[in-house]
Design brief:
- This protein is an alpha+beta fold.
- The protein has one domain (4-135).
- It has three helices and five strands.
- Helix 2 (11-22) packs across helix 3 (114-135).
- The longest helix has 22 residues, at 114-135.
- The chain is globular.
- The N and C termini lie far apart (32 Å).
Length: 137
């Protein structure tokens, strides 16, 4: 019997899930200076190498998210898609803790909450889905 969410999975969702589950070269989520940064490298089914970088800084304008493809001829990463910080889940405020409205990702804490880790993973998935749509065109 299939899971209800699996039956509604799009081809892009399936390819991204397979990439995240089995085609990972490296992945790190670490505290850096004034924030947190996720960096991950995957191999797409086309053979392209993709790098996801998500940075959540204490200053919103210094936060960013980008997915890049490796260009072996040029020996560099080329941007496939960038998302503004306002579109990221890692910038969401935790509304379950009023009236303080504590940020989901605290740039001063030494550890991330489980919800923040999930937010980084969801943003990573969304960036990879955009890259997948570009690569399969």
């Amino acid at each position: 019997m299939t899971n209800a969410t699996e039956s509604h999975e799009t081809p892009t969702d399936r390819r991204v899930r397979e990439m995240v589950e089995g085609r990972k070269i490296s992945r790190s989520l670490a505290k850096v200076r004034q924030g947190w940064e996720l960096t991950a490298i995957y191999v797409h089914q086309s053979g392209a190498r993709l790098r996801v970088r998500i940075r959540r800084d204490s200053y919103d304008h210094q936060s960013h998210a980008v997915v890049e493809a490796w260009a072996p001829r040029d020996l560099r990463w080329n941007e496939v898609h960038a998302a503004p910080y306002s579109a990221l889940l890692v910038t969401v405020v935790d509304a379950s803790r009023p009236p303080n409205r504590i940020p989901l990702v605290s740039t001063t804490e030494a550890r991330l909450s489980p919800q923040a880790v999930k937010a980084f993973a969801a943003d990573e998935f969304d960036l990879l889905a955009v890259a997948d749509r570009v690569l399969v065109l």
